[in-house]
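Researcher: Re-running this chain for the archive, since the previous output was lost when a drive failed. Same request as before.
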Amino acid sequence: MKKIGILFGQERTFPQALIERINSMNIEGVVAEAVTINKVMQGEPTEYAVIFDRISQDVPFYRAYLKNAALTGTAVINNPFWWSADEKFFNNCLATKIDVPVPKTVIFPSRDLPADTSDKSFSNLAYPLDWEGIFNYVGFPAYMKPFAGGGWKNVYKLESMEDFFEKHAETGQLVMLLQEEIVFEEYYRCYCIGGKYVRIMPYEPRNPHHLRYVADFAPSKERLELMESIVLRINQYLGYDFNTVELAVRDGVPYAIDFCNPAPDADRNSVGEENFAWVVETAAKYAVEKALAQQPGVDNLTWGEYIKRGAAKTALF
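Model: Regenerated structure tokens:
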């Protein structure tokens, strides 16, 4: 029996619907359930062929559990090793190398010294930084947000250099990035599952949360194809099984704004019935694909093109 386990936190609508949909497919030898953990022993396999991870970004214990599960043969959606190494600034850097338009972005040290460090820990850091060069490059208005954060936590819209220093003083030990504002005509949030299934959803981030998917943008066939190509390229290079990409269209060009969302919102009450039905159906289909392909005791994770190409080059030496 191939078990598909759903690991989740406070959310309810998506995990339960996913379990019910997988089981309703009546695939011989495949069953879905909520993950149950009663002990975690090093090097010991779990009972799951696939685990769909919706919560380990907030629970370090779960992340350790998933890495052990992956090491012993479970196909974890998403790859917990890559998710642990991944962050927004690197993703932006990678995008510049795979011809995906992104806003001008810079990173800078935390306002306060990290725990267990002193000023002597930063011998290689110029002081002050080249703030003039940074601000001239990014421009204002701009957005400041954590380089590895999630959601809209600690996100600031800044209007000037003075505004930057005032708000940066509030960020403590968070490492922040500063990003060009893209004044968009249209905005889209795009699910990508399995690096091959894409749903492009008109999205209005300026609306109240419960109305953000109520948008009447009507992209042309050509723009839809361009956005789908960008979404697939990003996810295939990063190696995400389940992710969302946000695209802001300025002067006809889709800019990737936020594309590091490996546990994206899939709640029925926020994404709406049609989007919810699509994500449940497609996630169920992909989870079953992974379960049927899973081989006990070997690596069943998805690794992105960036990692695979690096590993291939290393193998030549």
